[in-house]
Amino acid sequence: MKNRLLHFIVLITVQLGFAQNNFLWQGYFSYNEIMDLSESSTTIYAASENALFFKNIITSQIKTTNTVDGLSGQTISSLHYSAVFNKTLVGYENGLMIVINEIDGSMLNVVDIINKQLPPNTKKINHFMEFEGIVYVSCDFGIVQFNLATLQFGDTYFIGDNGAEISISQTTIYNGSIYAASNTGIRKAAISNKNLVDYKQWEVIAAGRWSGIATFGTDLFAVNAAGYLYKYDSNANAFLQYATLAQPSLDMRATANYLVVTTSNTIYVYDKQMALVRQINTNQITESNPSFTCATIIGETIFIGTKEDGMISTTISVASVFENTMPSGPTRNNIFALQATSNSLWAVYGDYSEIYNPYPLDSYGISKFSAKGWLNIPYEKVLGAKSLVRIIVNPTNENEVYIGSSYSGLLKIENDMPSVLFNQKNSGLEQISFIPNYFNDVRINGAVFDKSGNLWVNNSLVNNGIKVLKVDGVWQSFSTKPILIDPEKCSYGRMTVDKNGTKWLTTNRDGVIGFNENNNKFKKITSGPDAGNLPIADARVVAVDAKNQLWIGTTKGLRVLSNVGNFLSDDQLTANPIIILEDNLAQELLYEQFITDIVVDGANNKWIGTADSGVFLVSPNGQETKYHFTTSNSPLPSNVINDIDINSVTGEVFIATAKGLVSFKGVSTAANDDLSNAYVYPNPVRPEYQGTVKISGLLDKANIKITDIEGNLVYETISEGGTIEWDTTAFGKYKVASGVYMIFISAQDGVETKVKKVMIIR
């Protein structure tokens, strides 16, 4: 028991160590949806859905911050930069607040609002207002003080009638009073009052719903939910209507010289005399026609946040042009499917519900990442294909990509350009026929190339559910009536092909089916001890590992078929759970887990994604859980895992979650055919480096010996896959000294050898 507890503690420590070492993780976030902006005299600070970027307007240098750096994967709702304290405050919809020290980049998670005994849906942070070292945090329940010097929360103000919780959208200081715009009116109190926790100290000076309030020069302005701009009359102690907006205001703020009001279609910029010096309408930005979210000004430059087009900059001058200013990234954070090759990564955003319902249909386009950066192919160029849900790259031609749609059929892309949309009109694919009025619904969710270069796809909710596009361009269909109870009500998930050419398909009603066209044979693995032993008939993913085992992920757990070759001999295929020991008790690995993906790496480990529990990395036989990555111990922005794939050359594991894409740089590379490309990195190993030395480009089962310059052995291992790691210790006992170390690599049969060197600097 003590040993298992120690192993658990060590495992958690290792996992937390990995989470803190940025060199192992990489974030690939979208910066298209701008939630808020803040500014200093030289820098614009922008918050996207769950990541930040900062641009120095003098040097044009852009810096990003995301979950890899310590941010939460939750949705950001407010942002504030304090020039006095050189700190950035990030507010979230769930009430979390993160304070970033801009001097050293350190982050402090402040959870006081999250921990308040209030309904979870009332903790959203709407606005930060700084005054004399205190930040007044506007939330959906009231106002909270935060001291920037001590980094501690102070009083909480519940200022509704009889001390009720009310949603505060914004606060400001004007003539010695603090004003709060809320969903039940504008209230004010003397800022010097030491008893502001008493709701009776707050005076209601305007009724109704108010979205913003700001002090500009010597005046006070507010906007209400109906879209009217008001100016405060101190003599009347009331707000008087000043201007009418075309739409309700989403954001209002005062800068040094301008008052900026933002609606979804228009930016209004007023000077100190309240003259409207610039009005920007979305239709003026012809490249994208965006939807605005917020705007601010540094000097004479206007920075505009948008809903889907990132941050746009322009100047006060009407004749100026518009420039898109943001880091490169995918179109959206919620990537549903991805596919990695040795040189690129493809991503799509279409989705479907747990019951494979794609409605409402998505129109998001496609993204590709390569050495050139991100290429985002908009929906307007994908030939009308909606709800794109699965990607398959031709293994013999990376420039040929096929993308399955959960509504429109199969899209072919050649040289990064969509070229053909295969559907019921121009191919062997079929539309749903039994549901009235769904005349164009062609659902393709799984696809795989066989060793002959033929492309196999599954076609849901039709009798002929298996299709193949042969190398010569001819389509062929295969009926699934012999094996499925009711093919026209069967939706398919992922599919794969084994070394014997057997295609394995997951279904939502009949478990897993295997099909081999050479003998026109079907087999089925479904629920029940005599029918395949799956925990449920709803299977989602299948993967064949290096030992020809079929790993099956269902909505209720994991099963493994011991040998795919049994398809050719056994009448009934039976899969079994993996039984592990936890505290000397036998338990089923991933019991009851909704498994979304299984990927086999170069060392035959299994990367397993789940619907709500993050990612598991298990050993080849499943008996050891090497890592369990979640939002609490890693940079994963969400525990909802949509897809996983691995670059077999670099070993980079890409993990698509519901709130962003990250990657883990492990040792998941495939074995090489020879040692000609063996290499060591990093080299040299410098004092500040805290990671491991990786030796890549290996044969499987290669023998690696590492010695010091005098020939003393300090490490020895056998490779599994194409990469091994050395922690720069002498057999785990102590860190080796500075110097040059020799790495001797030999194939299992001893025929091929290689010698490399690595320099370590302590």
From TrEMBL:
Matches recorded under Pfam families: PorZ_N_b_propeller
Domain of life, source organism: Bacteria
Keywords per UniProt: Signal
InterPro entries: PorZ_N, Quinoprotein_ADH-like_sf, Secre_tail, WD40/YVTN_repeat-like_dom_sf
Ranges where the PorZ N-terminal beta-propeller domain occurs: 44-203
Keyword Signal attributed: yes
NCBIfam families: Por_Secre_tail
Record protein name field: Por secretion system C-terminal sorting domain-containing protein
Organism: Flavobacterium urumqiense
